Structure formats: structure tokens, C-alpha cells
Amino acid sequence: MPVLLEPAFGNMTTTVQYVMDQCKLHTKLQNYFGVGQITGEPGCGIANRVNQMLLQRRMAWKFNRVELGPTDGNFMVTQQGIQDMRFAGATAFVLLNNQGGSGTLPCGGVGIDLANQPVNGGAGGITIAGSVITVQTLDPHPFTSANVGTTLVYLTGVANPNFNSNFSYTQLTQTSAWTNGFTLLSVIDKYHFTLQSNNAAQLGAAPTGAPGIGNLGWLESASIQDINSTAFPQPVKPIQAVHRISPEYTTTGDELMFCALIDYNNGVIKFRLSEPMGTYCFQINAVYQARAPKLSTAKSIFRWPDDLSFVLVEMALWQASRFAYGLAAEETMKFQQSAQQALMSALEAEDKEDNVQGITPEWSLMR
């Protein structure tokens, strides 16, 4: 499904009301809601500042981690000659061993247009009329009319699971395969193509749901996977996630890097590889930290674990004391120190494990 802000889990129940009540007890019963007849203020404003300061730190919080990868189908697939990929959570792709017809078709994939206001206009996303599925893409797709009727196109990340292709594997034989591919019916233009429905459950259904990736904070890590491989597990290797990458016109042979280049704030993200890819396509997986959600009422729940709620209270006390006593007051300085100590304690708890990753040769020594 498209990647949206995940709901609070069972261990995330701390409300803005609770945190501001704790602040009230430590600031001479100062009121933090409805001050100056402004609904929810300054309590909600203080809570949002605390939330943003905690989640925007360059710290890979486990509870705030979101995966774009094989477990949820929200991965990207490279395309020949392409360095930049726009992505909104769903992909259409062709594998190297599923091409047919008399023409040539580079294997690879393209992001499906899931924006609220489609990037390329029209209905956007995926629509179905009768048994014909029409797909609108974010970038030019690699499919050609020469392969109509013989090429299988796979879909993944679609909100309605009936439209998603399936990856299956057999551990005993160490084999894997993609199934539930769609026959390419026609290529309308570089942003549109049609597929033949292969599932009765698809007929008359609404293929797409809520759009895109609406909560990207910062890119934490990435990996590249051989999506064409029929082995299990498929070959995978980490690649470096960086802040920005310059354009490149040819393959360099250097280690690949990956960045989230632009967030268009409409559910679409432009990602960039450090070099354009060749004719052999790969799957790109990524992990990111979600941005801080908006807390709008006293009942809003912090995206923060209950076992670390002491950090919320200490950080809020620091910010609340600025309102109650002033920025330079002695009490404010003391609360700031307590807040920093609480945060460091939470960081130590979060980063207890050894971060050393084992390194293995990319090729066998016997090759």
C-alpha cells in the first residue's frame, strides 16, 4: 500500500493533555490551554515544538523507522539510462526474463502516479474499465508497443492487494519467482499504458487508495537487490544513503549512492542514484525516519513510546518554562539542562546495540 503516517501503536498513548498537565504542576499551576482565548494554545504549540525537536534529530529511532522495501512492496525498480526516479509508493516493472515480441524492451520499472493532484494530469494512478487496467506513471515508462501481447508487467505497492503481483520463494530448493503479472495490452503514450486484468476480484474495484509518501523526514539507509534473480534469497547489498548527489551522464563503476532529492509535499518524492543504470534492472529498497506529525488538540497522541515519556515531559517543561518564566529565567535554564539530560538518556537507550556491520566479499574468492 502507499506509505502513509502510521497510527500510534499500543505503546504510544501519551497525550498532549497529559504532558501539559505535568508542566502545569511544575510551573505554579500555569494554564496552557485557551490562553488569550486561543484554542489549544500555548499547549499544542509547545507540544509540536517538542515533537519536532525530538524527531528531527539525526538519530535513527526504531519506533519512527519506515521501510520502503520487499516486506511491504513499496520499493523502486531502476530503468536503463535513468538516474532520477519519482516515487509515490507503487511501481510497475518488467523483469529481464519476461520480455517477448519482436522488439526490444529494456527491463526496469517506473513509479505510478498516486498524487492527490496527479503530476501528469488526468485521473492518475490506476483505473479499470471492464477488464482493461490503465496505468498512469510519474516518469516516462520503458515499455514499447513492439512488446504488446507478450510482455508481463508486474505491479506492487497498490492499495488494493488484488492488483499487486506476488513474490514467492521456496526455501528448500532456494528458488523464487514473481507471479500474477499482467499482459501488456497497449502503450498509449510515454506516461500511460494498459494491462489485461487477470483477477475477477479486480473487476469494478477501486485499485488505489490514499496517495503517496506523506511523512518523509530523512533517508536513513538503502540497499540494492537483484529483482531478476530466481534464487532465494535474492542477492542484496547495502548502498550509501546521502543528502544530495550531482547529475552524472554515464556509469562510473564507483560504489552506488542514493538520496531523497526532492519532497514535493504531494506524496511524491524524487530519489536519485549516483549514476544512470544499465540495461539490467535492480530493486531499490530504502529506510527513512518519519517526520513529526501535527498535534492539533489536547487529545492528540505523541508519536513517541510510553517508556520514554519522561523525555516528553522534560522537554515540554523546558519549553513551557519559557512561556511561564521567560527565556532567560533561572528556572528555564534549569529545565533546559534537565531536558538535555533526559534526551541523552533516551539516545543511550535507543543506541545500545553494536552498530558494526559485518563485511563480506562481493564476489566469491573461488570465482
Word description of this protein:
It contains 4 helices and 17 strands. With 367 residues, the protein is of the alpha+beta class. It has 2 domains: 99 residues, no CATH class; 225 residues, no CATH class. Strands 1, 2, 3, 13, 14, 15, 16 and 17 form an 8-stranded mixed sheet that branches. α1 crosses α3, α2 packs across α3 and α3 packs antiparallel against α4. The longest helix has 21 residues. It is elongated and about 75 Å long. The N terminus is likely disordered.
Number of strands: 17
Shape: elongated
Average pLDDT score: 86
Count of the domains? 2
How many alpha or pi helices? 4
Helix content: 10-25%
The helix-strand sequence is: HHEEEEEEEEEEEEEEEEEHH
The description of the largest β-sheet is: 8 strands, mixed
Strand content: 25-35%
Distance between the termini: 40 Å
**CA gyration radius, whole angstroms:** 24 Å
Which regions have little confidence, pLDDT < 50, spanning 5+ residues?
Answer: 1-8
Structural class: alpha+beta
